[in-house]
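Lab notebook, bench 4. The sequencing result for the construct came back, and we need a structural model before the next group meeting so we can plan mutations. Quick request posted to the team channel:

Model the 3D structure of this chain.
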Amino acid sequence: MDRRFFLKSSGIALASFGFMAAAPDFLHQFANAQSRTSRGKRKILITIFQRGAVDGLSMVIPYGDPAYFNARRTIAIPKPGANDGAVNLDGYFGLHPSLSPLESLWKSKQLAVIHAAGSPNNTRSHFDAQDYMESGTPGNKGTVNGWLNRALQSSQSKTDSAFRAVAMSQQTPRTMMGRYPTIAMSSLADFAIKAGAYSRSVQGGFEGIYQENAKDTLGETGKETFEAVNYLKKANPAQFKPENGAQYPNSQFAQSLRQIAQLIKADVGLETAFAEVTGWDTHTNQGSSRGQLSNLLRDFGGAINALTVDLGKRMDDVLILTMSEFGRTVRENGGRGTDHGHGNAMFAIGGGVKGGKVYGDWKGLKTEYLYEGRDLAVTTDFRDVFAEVASRHLGNKNLDKIFPGFTADPKNFKGFVS
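Done. Here's the predicted structure in token form:
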């Protein structure tokens, strides 16, 4: 019996518990979970997507530019030292006060900001902009895979763990789609339940086929699958509690980061992780130091801070990179919110980050410097940011394969990764 046909006819839906790869390739990949140590010490990348287009000018405030306050009469964040004022970074830029949990990372030079970053494509469509950022090919809707999947493909090894790339999401994110097998799970508990049910439901069927044809490749694949599921059960990431006094917020996003930390501690071979958080499309009643955006940033900053505290010294080998599809208009609108814009701010956090600095070519917010007279101009292509992380943190030199049609020149790197 053909292995693929057997899997299909037996009703085994790998994708139902997050496995979005072709069955044979996926199962062989799964079998390598226990041989992960041959890769040596790993660097880990955690990407966080702020879906909905966060207002980077409220996240990292250019309070040293008078044009900022002129454009935002009701939603501007006050200068440092004022009531509910920004957290001072360098005398010109400041963090939103709800991001104060990240101040210690800035002071310890583990947090860098890349401002005025974004896509060279001018779309203001959430769907298109997210697709371009996750595919890594702005303006090209025909790209079938994501930039992270291409990075994984170009650096794969026969000893890769099945858990090398994990997304804490209901579905495989666009950035991880492609030929390289990745795992998407809504939670570790959900994965364990479904994986356990999967292994129990098919074990008898597989064993019967073993007896009929011991040399059939399905037999080996079945054994590999059971070994991999059992391996994860033995690793039991859920056993690892937050360390160093880390306190995660109760949000879904924060719990995703907590579970990523558990996977790292369980040493299952994780190298690339993905998490996302929604709600950033603040067209009305955005708020200033308090309100809608403030609440979102409080959870965002608190969750990231908890992750870094929880991992402790492990952060020496971890880099957290945040991103959003585009920024928002410089001027507030009539609903005391902001509309779809262009340039935005990104965070890079980790022990290997040259932090305590705002990177990028900052032109300012005077009208003559704005994109189409309304938006923060993009002066750093997001692909240069991704390429620097892939090259200098992950050690992947195959940038032409990761970013097809784009020359990722190290001369354009900002230097925020050691």
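The chain has one domain: 3-404.
Will bring this to the meeting.
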